[in-house]
Specification:
The mean pLDDT is about 95. A hairpin with a 7-residue loop joins strand 2 and strand 3. The chain has about 110 residues and is an alpha+beta fold.
Amino acid sequence: MSKTVFERIIDREIPATIVYEDAQVLAFEDIKPQAPKHVLIVPKKPIPRLAEAKPEDAQLLGYLVLKAAEVAASLGLSNSGFRLVFNNGPDAGEAVPHLHCHIIGGRRLGWPPG
């Protein structure tokens, strides 16, 4: 099976503007931002989508969410607010089959989002 675009970014085969990295996750700017601040945070372990995560992924998923909040704070979004978005499947807007979280902020976000 070929690598997803996110795996290729993790492996530095495709350039990205990286804003955070550690042994478990990588965060980088979205190439088609929907707000002034729009960053993706992905686990380095390839999980296709949230619906395919296993019980043994629970710790990694919790870590991902906590790191997303830290990245949002580093982007200056803590006081004004930010949104975390996980898309699951094509009808939800999933374009890359590698679990990822969008960190979106820097402007007032409407509700409902869809």
